[in-house]
Amino acid sequence: MTAVTITVLLLVIGGFIAFAIFLQLKEQARLEKLRKVAALNNQLRQVRRYLDEMPPQYQPKDMKLWLFSRMVSLYDQLIALQPDATLSRRRQNIAAEMKEFQGSKQKRRAKPMNDELLIIEVRRLFESFKSYLILSQKEKTIDSDVVNRYNKLLNFFHYKVNSDYHSHLARKAFLSGQMSSALEMYKESLSQLNPIKESVEAQATILKLKELIQEIEEDLVLQKAEDEISRDMDNQGEEELDDEWNKFIEDSTFQEKKRF
After folding, report:
1. What is the pLDDT at residue 27?
2. Membrane-spanning regions, if any (predicted)?
3. Which of 50, 112, 189, 249 has a CA that sits 20 to 30 A from residue 86's CA?
4. pLDDT-derived band of residue 108, with 50, 70 and 90 as boundaries?
5. Residues 176, 164: contact at Cβ < 8 Å?
6. Rounded to 5 degrees, what are φ and ψ at 246?
């Protein structure tokens, strides 16, 4: 075999190896792109779930705006990987929703915590959101100070959901005129906050519950006093009626005797 033939064979083999490596790298790049797209779509679904399913009273405005901004950023990354008209339209819709929410002055209506299964689901959302905050901090899409503040709020909300549940039961009892039951439920609502009673986040809620408890206790004392007065007046009225009746009987007897 001549040197020329050997050289040609080496070039062919080298070209084949290079082409195989090129194909392998291209496939790896394709798979990596698919992996990134899948991860971004998962994050989009996750963030959308936080926005839609986390009750409004547990989403401070700045937290919700951050979630909106994350969705916009995730769509930007997706569009960069695979330009698509549908993705662009969704991105515009989210940006418009974010702008509308940012400019809105309307107070968001709280979602009633009226079911124990709902409380369990909301708490799971809190734990999932904590994990997402850690991931976002690693990706440097959120400041560590903000993460610490949100974690404190989430810790407070973890106990507040159960407190809100008992407050809901207390209000139902109060509106039904069951004052003693309402008082008991409000006290239970307050006790649910005992593990975090020293936290700054819990102070306003604790103060409000204490005021409600005091008002109901004062109403019950007043109601008891009114009942006692009413009972005394009823007893006094019965005694006066008895006296008048006895006097009437005595007068009637005297007149009958006088006829004889």
Report:
1. 66
2. 6-25
3. 50
4. confident
5. no
6. -60, -40
The amino acid sitting at 63 is M
Yes or no: say if 60 and 153 are a contact pair by the CB < 8 Å rule.
Answer: yes
Q: What confidence tens digit (pLDDT) does each residue in 212-244 have?
A: 999 999 999 888 887 677 765 655 655 555 555
Q: 10 Å Cβ neighbour count for 54?
A: 20
Structure tokens at 2: 């001549």
What Cα–Cα distance (Å) separates residue 88 from each residue in 74, 141, 232?
A: 11, 21, 78
Q: Higher pLDDT residue, 22 or 185? A: 185
**Measuring CA to CA, how many Å separate 141 from each of 44, 98, 202, 258?**
14, 18, 28, 109
> What's the mean pLDDT in 105-129?
92
Residue whose structure tokens are 């082409």: 19
Position 251, amino acid: D
pLDDT at 256 over 70: no
The domains of the chain are located at: 1-107, 112-246
For 111, which DSSP code? Answer: P
Phi-psi group of 64: left, alpha or beta (phi > 0 → left; psi -120 to 50 → alpha; rest → beta) = alpha
